[in-house]
Amino acid sequence: MTDREWIWIAAACYLVGVVIGTIALIRHRKQPAGSIYLIIAIGFVLQTVGLYVRGLEVGGCPLGNHFELFQFTAWSATSLYLVVGATFRLSLLGYFTSLLSLVLSLVSLSIPAWDATRRSDVFGGNVWIEFHAALALFSYGVFALLALTSTMFLLRNYSLKHKQLSGAFAFLPSIRDLDTISLRLLNVGVALLSASLLVGSAHWLRAIDSVDFLKLVTTVAIWFAYGAAFILRRKGKLYGKNLSWACIGLFIAALLSLYFVNSSRRGDALPPVPPSVQP
Amino acid sequence: MSKTESFLFVVGATHHTAPLEWREKLALNPTALPKLEQKLGDLTGLQEYAILNTCNRVEFYGVAETDATLDQLRAVFCEHQEIEVDAFVAKQLCKIDSDAIHHLGAVSAGLESQLVGENEIFGQVKDAYAAAQKTQRVGPTLHKVFQKTFQAAKQVRTHTGISEGQVSVANVSVDLATTIFGDLSDARILLAGAGEIGEQAAKAFRSRGATDLTVSSRTADNAMQLAQALDGRALPFETLADHLSQFDVIVCATAAPGSILSSPAVAKAMRQRPAAPLFLIDLALPRDIDAAVAKIDNVYLYNLDDLAAISEENKSARMAEITKARDMIAAKAHHLWENLQRRREASN
Description:
The structure holds 2 protein chains of 2 kinds. Chain A is mainly alpha-helical. Chain A has one domain (3-268). Chain A has 8 helices and no strands. Chain B is α/β, with parallel strands linked by helices. Helix content of chain B is 50%, strand content 16%. Chain B has 12 helices and 10 strands. Classes of the chains: A mainly alpha, B alpha/beta.
């Protein structure tokens, strides 16, 4: 089986999670958290296999094109959910995670152009750069989960403010639980992204021309924005609804930045594109 | 009723059939239970039995050879409880075969409870079965009936919402608090007003794990008394506005003619705790809390009308679920009865 086929099957698992969750929501039933968790775990394993096969093909961490970047972000978010979901038992988070992973997977799989160019040895054999990139992408996965918990916070806040407590709203976690988990995700995400930039900057200082200016500015801007949100939350200046909107907006910006940063990357040795992904 | 072959039965009394004073007379004393069990064990026609003894019901489930066995059981029970058999028969619940199975299913699922949907009864039925098993009073029929009933009751709880949705204003308030704070054990609760409604709400919070309760009343003595009763603290009413920021939940139930919490006062309190949510419950008429407070971020205000609307919604949702649960239990009981019949025919 090819890497993309593994990832298609993983996306199918996420779809099953979404369907099960949606049926429960429509029927106003509790989310079958155990089943959704298991399905996401299976999807995660399949996605890991797909990315591993791709990694073998490109000779490193598969972060060389839009498809791989989106897949890696979805994979990071899912892996984090498997830890957070088991620890905090936040109802509906599994549903939202499978939805996010499904959307990211389907978008990246359904645009063949995103995977038409495969860069091999994209990090020039420098493990620190590869580590930097993987760490940055993993932090984006954390921010993806943060965007989900922020969405849930906004829904819960809306339901409480507008006295709409029945139906799907009844299954949302409490405001305080959502705030706690969001704050922890923000802390972890900022720490990972900072560590990633620290590792990357060590390389950049030795070879300033090696990093594209647009990539540098975009990445630092994303880091700065999340850092600002982190500090403002700590100081009690940005919280609740506004923090949630900020986290959702920042994640969208982070995703868009991935697209632009990757588009601006210089060409590398390209392996032939398999027919399965040609438009 | 006249039975010539062994049959399944339930006989006893419940809150549906007997008033409280009668249930007090019928309630089995656990220490005297072995003596009763010994007497019942001497009844040769009583093939199997289990006793369910809770505050709202005393029920004997079993398999009897003839009607006379059932009469003997009643006589033994009434003698043990020192009551007249005729008086007991007048208050009794008696069902046989498929109706008995149906009844056990409904009891286990919480459909026969005073507070429909409560969970405690399921554990009590399980305990009754375990006790009967331990003393080898359960045979193949009761074993199957209880096991299948447990499965059915679990299914009902999983697939219906009979346990969900509070209907009293006090409990609706507590439910709302859990949607904001989750665990209430560390929530700081202020009760403004020492009247009956406020007290009920405070007790409801206490019963759901809240430990930090403060009472403030325009009459200091009332506040002190209620604070003592609730194992909480009293706060002078005049200083209430200055301490708002120290609380997570504020229940207002005073008889004050105007509002006691203004929007500027709450906004000032929130500036000292901006990221921490504040839940305001206004149980007073006229209202104690300025309605404009609801516009402040992280503040959630619910008044009597809001709580009553939620209560009504819960009531109707629960009724629909109860109907669904009853249908499920009826279908399961019918299926189990047919199964037992087939098994009996096969063994004959």
